[in-house]
Design goal:
Length: 215
């Protein structure tokens, strides 16, 4: 079995997505801390691994891949015993890609807000909140009639969105009256045994709650 190293920190949603998937696939990942708060990601050694200085990156026995979405596609194609998380059927796979790209868009909204809060802004600007609410509306519509974002089984895009939304929910709460389908999906996801212990929900909620309280 090849040695797999994941670089990152647990408070990062994309890093947590990869860890959840690894747990679901029963893969052993060695974890190496690259702390973006201490600028570890800008050090020469890490830039050789990821010239784009983001976390996570995966080193699979010398083969390096970065971006959580690309890592998850790779891990399922290479190691999963079936294709349920990332279907081989072109149309089903395309639907998964569609939601993964949407997750990347929503994650950037989260990242922008977190950067603003760390830079000293005292309140999340209204236009940023509205941008997030617009995504919640779309997500809620997407889930109508579906248990998961691409149908009735969990795919890697559900895992990505779970990590993004667990963080975003702390900053721009997901209102259960307005977004009942998202809330029901969150509950379904958090009930999975491979998610419960590695979602990082407790840690991220604490970190972001403290960040808001400081304001
Ligand atoms: N699309 C990327 C986003 C990765 C990302 O932005 N990670 C943040 C931490 S949550 C990061 O590395 N920030 C440091 C930087 O931008 O230099 C993915 O899914 O892996």
């Amino acid at each position: 079995m090849s040695k797999k190293i994941l670089y990152g920190i647990i408070s990062s949603p994309p890093v947590r997505s990869v860890r959840i998937l690894a747990k679901a696939l029963n893969l052993d990942l060695e974890f190496k801390t690259v702390n973006v708060f201490q600028k570890d990601n800008l050090k020469e050694d890490y830039l050789k691994i990821n010239p784009n200085h983001k976390i996570p990156s995966l080193d699979d026995n010398g083969f390096i891949v970065w971006d959580s979405h690309a890592i998850m596609m790779y891990l399922v194609d290479k190691y999963a015993t079936n294709d349920s998380f990332y279907p081989k059927d072109l149309q089903k796979r395309t639907k998964v890609h569609q939601i993964l790209f949407f997750d990347a868009e929503i994650f950037e909204k989260l990242r922008t807000i977190v950067i603003l809060l760390y830079s000293g802004v005292s309140e999340i600007p209204t236009d940023k909140i509205e941008g997030v609410e617009d995504s919640y509306k779309s997500l809620n519509r997407l889930l109508q009639g579906n248990s998961y974002f691409t149908g009735n089984t969990v795919a890697i895009c559900d895992i990505s969105l779970l990590s993004t939304l667990l963080s975003l929910d702390v900053l721009v709460p997901i209102n259960s009256k307005e977004y009942p389908s998202i809330k029901a999906w969150l509950t379904r996801m958090e009930d999975k045994d491979y998610i419960a212990n590695v979602s990082g929900k407790k840690e991220i909620t604490q970190l972001l709650t403290d960040l808001i309280k400081k304001k």
